[in-house]
Amino acid sequence: TAFTNILTREDGGVGIITLNRPKALNALSTPLMTELNDALAQYDRDDGIMAIVLTGSEKAFAAGADIKEMRELTFMECYKKEFITSWTKVTTTRKPVIAAVSGFALGGGCELAMMCDIIYASHDAKFGQPEINLGILPGAGGTQRLVRAVGKSKAMELCLTGDMMTAQEALAGGLVAKVVPAGESTVLEEAIKTAKKIAKKSLPSVMMVKECVNKSFELSLAEGLHLERRFFHAAFATQDQKEGMGAFVEKRKPSWTHE
Ligand code: HXC
Question: Is 64 among the residues known to form the active site?
């Protein structure tokens, strides 16, 4: 499929999606989000793809939803077409999605990164929810996922002031898993390296881990532990369990069939 707002490429079982509206700092327009949804759905269906990396430019992962598109919107238009409601394909993608964030991840851009499973940040990444400065509020999870990531006080501070948080603060708060310092490798390269590592695992295990971890946000501990136990039992129905344990005992590398 030909995209105009994003770029896609594949590398060693990893699908790489680059947001590509550099002049608008990757502002998330409806056409861009439609393309992103399509690309994610394609990779999710593709048996050759085991993990996905989502990135932007050096200057911006994404500077938010497209303010020029939203400016004249009315309540009825938002309500009737369920504005933003369909921007959630990242959250229903079953293969892992790693966000590689350089520069600005603001508003919808920060929210999009938070929909991903792992966030890696470059040393100069900046995260924030500046919607308050536009007379609106976050609309794609900023008031919800940020609280779960960095706690109430920091999330409240960011959403109420619109101030940006540095990569180091994001790391300290637990929003990002790694900050990549200036130097030899870029945040995108580090994200691809991790995605390739995951791509070499058994896909059923990977998908089950992702599903269980994400459910931990929705379920009570008892329900979450129950779900995990059932998936654990189910893993013994896979060929990959026999292969993985067989390979360990026979002191060789496993060869996954992903079944
Ligand atoms: C549309 C945007 C944009 C956005 C930047 N641009 N952000 N266009 N929507 N969110 C455009 C600018 O208008 C400008 O276009 C070009 O990108 C370069 O931006 P500059 O402002 O000139 O760059 P700079 O001075 O480096 O400042 C960078 C910045 C600033 C601090 C990131 O652009 C900024 O504050 N952007 C808005 C951030 C924001 O408020 N995001 C939240 C949006 S609301 P021209 O044509 O002038 O060159 C939101 C709601 C989420 O996300 C709802 C759920 C998804």
Answer: no
What are the φ/ψ torsions at residue 179 (nearest 5 degrees)? -110, 125
84 lines ligand 1 (CB under 6 A): yes
Q: Residue 160 has what DSSP assignment? A: H
Query: Is the ipTM value over 0.95, yes or no?
Result: yes
Is the shortest distance between the CB of 150 and ligand 1 below 6 Å?
A: no
How many other CB atoms are found less than 10 A from the CB of residue 149?
19
Locate tokens 């992702």: which residue?
A: 210
Contact, 121 vs 62, CB < 8 A?
no
One pLDDT digit (tens) per residue for the chain, 259 residues? 689 999 999 999 999 999 999 999 999 999 999 999 999 999 999 999 999 999 999 999 999 999 999 999 999 999 999 999 989 999 999 999 999 999 999 999 999 999 999 999 999 999 999 999 999 999 999 999 999 999 999 999 999 999 999 999 999 999 999 999 999 899 999 999 999 999 999 999 999 999 999 999 999 999 999 999 999 999 999 999 999 999 999 999 999 999 9
Phi, psi torsion values for 202, nearest 5 degrees: -75, 125
Query: Is this prediction's pTM over 0.90?
Result: yes
Active-site annotation holds for 65: yes
Which residue minimizes the CA distance to atom 12 of ligand 1? 24
Residue 187's contacts (CB-CB under 8 Å, 6 or more residues apart) are: 55, 100, 101, 102, 120, 121, 122, 125, 180
CA of 125 to the centre of ligand 1 (A): 15
Cα-Cα end-to-end distance for the chain: 28
Q: Are 63 and 106 in contact (CB under 8 A)?
A: yes
Our answer to whether residue 131 is catalytic in this structure is yes
